[in-house]
Amino acid sequence: MDMFPYRDLFVSEARGHLSAFSELIVHLEESSGDTAAIDELFRHAHSLKGMAATMGYEQIVGVAHLMEDQLSRVRSGELQLLPALADLLLEGGDTLTLLVSQVESGSDLFEDTTGLIERLTAYDPTAETPPPVNTNPSCESAATFQGSAVSAPHQFRQTDSFKSIRIKTETLDHLVNITGELITNRYLLDESIRLADAVECWEPLKQLTALLRNLRDQVFKARMLPFAVIAERFPRLVRDLARKQGKVVDFQIEGKEIELDRGILEEIAEPIVHILRNAVDHGLETADERVMAGKPHGGTIKLTVRRDKDHVDIIISDDGRGMDPDHLKLKAVQKGIISPERAAQMTAQEACQLVCKPGFSTSATVTDVSGRGVGMDAVHEAVHMLAGALTIQSQCGQGSHFIMRLPITVSIIHALIVQCGQFEMAFPLTVVMRTLELKHSEIIEEHGGGLTIRVDGSTLPLRSLRRILYLPQAPETEGALLPVIVCDVSGTLIAFEVDRIFGQQEIFVRPLKSPLSYLRGVSGATIAGDGRVLYVVDASALA
């Protein structure tokens, strides 16, 4: 019987078992008496073995069978899931992940599993020398993520009938693009009806708008996936890094059920990995250092996901050594990143943001985890490419908080449309805090020529959008009010002076292609109701 038609189904189901497998092993290291988790772990190994046997993948059967044998011994109480056995089972899971990837690609060159099979067969918990520890934290990153539901055919469930169908992700992407184009054409139609004064068309247009909104919601719902899809790999990542560095870490995840657009999940996984690696390596002290500082010998890293209206906050916090703002400023001055004058003016939070500067690092040594001055700049860039914002809060000796605020989706967003000279631009609402109208007399000119304004007792820097765009300054009109937009730029409030604020609008964001992709201060473009191109603002770059 030709099994090729069932290969994709096998790969999808096998990866589901393997993702759960790694997560359960890490969980059982901390809660060895959880019999339900042990039973579930055994069932995953047993199911994978049975599926592989049906398909004729004998190499997968061999590894899974021996892992099942060891888990059976744990289940019966004959063995404890000690770190050495956990290392061996996790190595088996990594090997099975590679074998499944080779099945997917149609390759006949499978991994050599002889050594692993010998160690699984001869495992002795009383042996003085434990099996080799797989300390490469990146070994499971690409394969596991690519094998998750993010890139596997997306499963859309109808909860009323418990039936499901498989939809290719390319089809869902195409549906989003079509929906975005329909929304754009709806504004074009709106403009045409307004110019023609076709009153009889307003009611059909209103109904069309409601239908488009419903279509948008349903398409987005089909693309939404729980954060758990990418979260399954993180406990293993933290566990391996902590063991390698001899640190004790309690890793917690909250909000795995929160859903985000598939495109957001794909792009944010690696930035989260960067922050978690830094938290283990830089953030947490060793057990001895923590005890000397009056802390518990084990550190805590917490990953929290929260939904708030049209955006999601991903917060990674630790109770480690924190950051010293003065030390950060000193290093930045030494590296020529900022001037001594600028360093003296910086707040503690602004100093923490220095870690996102390219080439910035406070590590005295270079390791395979950190210390090369790369990582956080990539995180910052990735977050802003998603029209999000990254905020860093830290207190010396008390730990750090990394907050990524992201839109639910990046294709169709809500934006504030403004005018500056002959240009109209769109500010994503995820960065807009408020709008103001000020008198010219309320603008303060600081020493050195910088402009500021006072808002709720705080002094905010004021940037002229005209000056940023190299446009001539508008003539001052006596008594006229200046429209101002206050934006959250990496945790710092910055005000932008514009000519006019039109209001909010739902827009379909198109990515810019070369050479427009090199424009600083814009992250995409959209089409206005009259066919004009509006650029989507990157407030961080403009600031």
Describe it.
The structure is a single chain. The protein has three domains: 4-134, HPT domain (Four Helix Bundle (Hemerythrin (Met), subunit A)); 226-407, Heat Shock Protein 90, CATH 3.30.565; 412-542, CheA-289, Domain 4 (OB fold (Dihydrolipoamide Acetyltransferase, E2P), Beta Barrel), CATH 2.40.50. 43% of the residues lie in helices and 23% in strands. The protein contains 18 helices and 20 strands. The strands form five sheets. Strands 12-16-17-15-14-13 form a six-stranded mixed sheet. Strands 4-6-7-9-8 form a five-stranded mixed sheet. A hairpin with a 2-residue loop joins β6 (299-308) and β7. α3 packs parallel to α5 and α10 (234-245) runs parallel beside α11 (262-283). It is flat. The termini are far apart. Mean pLDDT is 82; it is low at 128-162.
What keyword list fits this structure?
flat; OB fold (Dihydrolipoamide Acetyltransferase, E2P); 18 helices; Heat Shock Protein 90; 6-stranded mixed sheet; alpha+beta; Four Helix Bundle (Hemerythrin (Met), subunit A); single chain
Overview in brief:
The protein has 543 residues and is α+β, with helices and mostly antiparallel strands. 43% of the residues lie in helices and 23% in strands.
| Strands, total number | 20
Distance between the termini: 64 Å
Low-confidence stretches: 128-162
CATH class of the largest domain: Alpha Beta
> How many discrete structural domains?
3
Largest sheet: 6 strands, mixed
- Category from helices, strands and their pairing: alpha+beta
Which fold name fills CATH's third level, the topology of the largest domain?
Heat Shock Protein 90
Mean pLDDT: 82
What percentage of amino acids are in beta strands? 15-25%
Which percent bin holds the helix content?
40-55%
Shape, please?
flat
By DSSP (H or I, 4+ residues per run), the number of helices equals 18
**Rg computed from alpha carbons, rounded to a whole number of angstroms:** 27 Å
Give me the CATH superfamily of the largest domain.
Histidine kinase-like ATPase, C-terminal domain
CATH architecture of the largest domain: 2-Layer Sandwich
Give the strand order, joined by hyphens, for the main sheet.
Answer: 12-16-17-15-14-13
